[in-house]
Amino acid sequence: MEQKDTEMHEKGVSSSTSGVVVQVREKKGPLRAAIPYMPFPVAVICLFLNTFVPGLGTFVSAFTVLCGARTDLPDRHVCCVFWLNIAAAFIQILTAVVMVGWIMSIFWGMDMVILASYREQAAAQQL
User: Fold this and answer.
1) To the nearest whole percent, how much of the chain has pLDDT over 70?
2) Distance between CA 47 and CA 16 in Å, rounded?
3) I want to staple 93 with a disulfide (CB 3.0 to 4.6 A). Which of 55, 57, 85, 124 is the partner?
4) What is the number of other CB atoms lying within 10 angstroms of the CB of residue 27?
5) 37 bridge partner residues
6) For this UniProt entry, which segments traverse the membrane (predicted)?
7) How many angstroms separate the Cα of 72 from the Cα of each of 34, 75, 84, 115, 116?
8) For residue 70, which phi and psi values (nearest 5 degrees)?
9) Alpha carbons 49 and 68: distance in angstroms, whole number
10) What is the pTM of this model?
11) What DSSP element (H or E) covers 60?
């Protein structure tokens, strides 16, 4: 065991007992990063809309950006992020005919709910 740890330290690799913390960050594309952090009830409504009318919830979420919802694109102008969300909604609507847009729309709504829960958890931790 000691020989294995020694070899790992020589190669620059830490063993699991050394306490090294690895941080993983998800790389998001521009459309995915444009999903706004909305209040939880609004995100659930958008998920519901996306489930039954593909793209409608994404279209509604685009307007929350104009109302001040934060996104993962802080360097982009609000209008640019708004149009990215509108583009995502139209992609979902146009490809719903072959079921791809409908599935994409449901996953988009689930991402909205996940981001809203992150937002609420962060707000609860600040209190």
Assistant:
1) 87
2) 40
3) 55
4) 6
5) 70
6) 40-69, 81-108
7) 6, 9, 12, 10, 13
8) -80, 150
9) 21
10) 0.75
11) helix 56-66
- What pLDDT digit, counting tens, does each position of 49-88 carry? 999 999 999 999 999 999 988 998 888 899 999 999 999 9
The whole-number pLDDT of residue 8 equals 46
Tokens of 18: 């050394």
Q: Measuring CA to CA, which residue among 31, 81, 94, 86 is closest to residue 58?
A: 86
- Residue whose token pair is 């829960």: 117
pLDDT of residue 54: 94
pLDDT (0 to 100) of residue 119: 75
CA distances from 107 to 5, 25, 73 (A): 43, 20, 20
Please tell me which residue, 27 or 49, carries the higher pLDDT value.
Answer: 49
* Distance of alpha carbon 70 from alpha carbon 86, whole angstroms: 16
- Token couple for 17: 């007992």
Residue 98, sorted as left (phi over 0), alpha (psi -120 to 50) or beta, turns out to be alpha
Nearest CA to 81 among 101, 51, 61? 61
Half-sphere exposure of 22 toward its Cβ, with a 13 Å CA cutoff? 6
